[in-house]
């Protein structure tokens, strides 16, 4: 499966979404009408390692990472309590293999925030992940609405 297929699916399926290049990755924000500068960030695709994010070994040929923000209860149901925030350049501590392919894990850097990730997901895995991505989108929508209400 190619990352472009996921980008196309997100553009066709998820409403109120803006996609842009941010922080060395393609990022999706819930931001209908461009109300905020970025809106609520909920999904990324990253295709190369960064200075503070090397645990997924994304510099391998054909490897890229799909990441998304899960509701906290969903994250904890799948992975247990959220790990502690890692120090800059570190990874969340746990028994996960962050460089494994086609395996859902906490995000190596942002797992403490409830983010999950999968490196080079297969088509079958992506089909199984769609409901989780929709939950991430809903989480972002709710966060956006709360921020918009405060800004009004």
Short structural description:
This protein is an alpha+beta fold and about 150 residues long.
Question: What does this molecule look like?
Answer:
The chain has 152 residues and is an alpha+beta fold. 32% of the residues lie in helices and 20% in strands. It is globular, with a radius of gyration of 15 Å.
Helix-strand topology string: HEEEEHEEH
Helical element count? 3
Main sheet summary: 6 strands, antiparallel
- List the uncertain runs: none
* DSSP E strands, number: 6
The helix fraction, in percent, is: 25-40%
Taking Cα atoms only, what radius of gyration do you get, to the nearest Å? 15 Å
Distance between the termini: 42 Å
> Order of strands in the sheet with the most strands?
1-2-3-4-6-5
Strand-pairing-aware structural class: alpha+beta
Cα shape: globular
Tell me what portion of residues adopts beta-strand conformation: 15-25%
Secondary structure elements and pairings:
Blueprint lengths: L2 H11 L3 E6 L2 E6 L9 E7 L18 E5 L2 H8 L25 E2 L8 E5 L3 H29 L1
Antiparallel strand pairs: 1-2, 2-3, 3-4, 4-6, 5-6
What are the main properties of this structure?
6-stranded antiparallel beta sheet, globular, alpha+beta, 3 helices
């Amino acid at each position: 499966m190619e990352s472009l297929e996921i980008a196309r699916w997100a553009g066709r399926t998820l409403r109120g979404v803006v996609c842009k290049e941010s922080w060395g990755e393609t990022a999706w924000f819930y931001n209908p009408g461009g109300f905020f500068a970025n809106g609520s960030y909920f999904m990324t695709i990253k295709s190369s390692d960064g200075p503070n994010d090397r645990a997924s070994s994304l510099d391998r040929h054909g490897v890229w990472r799909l990441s998304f923000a899960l509701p906290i209860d969903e994250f904890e149901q799948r992975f247990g309590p959220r790990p502690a925030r890692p120090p800059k350049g570190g990874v969340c501590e746990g028994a996960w293999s962050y460089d494994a392919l086609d395996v859902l894990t906490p995000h190596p850097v942002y797992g403490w925030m409830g983010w999950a990730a999968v490196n080079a997901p297969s088509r079958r895995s992506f089909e199984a992940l769609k409901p989780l991505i929709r939950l991430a989108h809903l989480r972002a929508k709710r966060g956006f609405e709360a921020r918009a209400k405060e800004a009004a």
